[in-house]
Amino acid sequence: MGAVVMGPYADLAEGMKVKCTGRILEVPVGRGLLGRVVNTLGAPIDGKGPVDNDGFSAVEAIAPGVIDRQSVDQPVQTGYKAVDSMIPIGRGQRELIIGDRQTGKTALAIDAIINQRDSGIKCIYVAIGQKASTISNVVRKLEEHGALANTIVVVATASESAALQYLAPYAGCAMGEYFRDRGEDALIIYDDLSKQAVAYRQISLLLRRPPGREAFPGDVFYLHSSSAGACCAC
Predict the structure, then answer these.
(1) pLDDT of 81-117, one tens digit each?
(2) Least C-beta-crowded within 10 Å: which of 20, 147, 164, 176?
(3) Nearby residues of 134 by Cβ (< 8 Å), 6 or more positions away
(4) Which domains occur in the chain, in start order?
């Protein structure tokens, strides 16, 4: 059995005792998180004071079954005519944005968030393994266009531990499920899941799990499917 320390670990040394809390990992959820920048554990990092949350939600929950899911029948307007007319995205749908570096993947996602200012859709932007300066530019752009008030920004920078980068998508999904369970729509952007896979590989190698192709563990595909499995219309 392996264990990963979620709290401060820099001062830990061999032979020291680390106690388990005995609780399943939870993150704060609620409307008070809108307009805030938080870390993977839901703690504010934007210097605006404590977060006014409505409660806590487990980062790993059972996704709704097929029968409970509604069909995708409402579009999400991204603001790009080529996307909205040729390959429209529906509410409750999962969509992969793939491409080479510096081809505008993040710009497309950010513009889609900005386009939801007056649509009533709550947005969660999950930044995984990025530089703090890059995330700061994204937050500034959202604020300039009046979209930050409708958005939760979950941050796990490249300087943070692999455990926090691995859990960031699950934390963002739990925050989005809060709105889903209340009959509202939420748009979740994971930027990007390849960094989460690298963090998961690092954790798996440290825990001495059998490596597969390119040293990734065999369940890396389940990792991404489970983080997106709760994305649906109910």
Answers:
(1) 999 999 999 998 889 899 898 899 999 999 999 999 9
(2) 20
(3) 127
(4) 28-228 (3.40.50.300)
- Nearest alpha-carbon partner for 38 in 54, 24, 27: 27
Lookup result for tokens 């963090």: 199
Do 91 and 75 touch, CB atoms closer than 8 A? yes
**Amino acid, res. 156:** A
- With CA atoms as reference, report the closest residue to 54 among 142, 152, 145: 152
3-state helix, strand, coil in the chain (%, to 5): 35, 15, 50
On whether the CB atoms of residues 54 and 33 are closer than 8 A, the answer is no
Q: Quick one: DSSP state of residue 118?
A: T
Question: Could you tell me if 15 and 49 are in contact, meaning their C-beta atoms sit under 8 angstroms apart?
Answer: no
Question: In the Cβ-directed half-sphere of 10, how many Cα atoms lie within 13 Å?
Answer: 3
List of residues 6+ apart from 122 with CB closer than 8 A: 34, 150, 151, 152, 176, 179, 184, 185, 186, 187
Question: What is the token pair recorded at 95?
Answer: 């969509």
Statement: residue 22 has pLDDT above 90: no
Residue 226 parent element (H or E): helix 220-228
**What gap in Å lies between CA 127 and CA 155, rounded to an integer?**
5
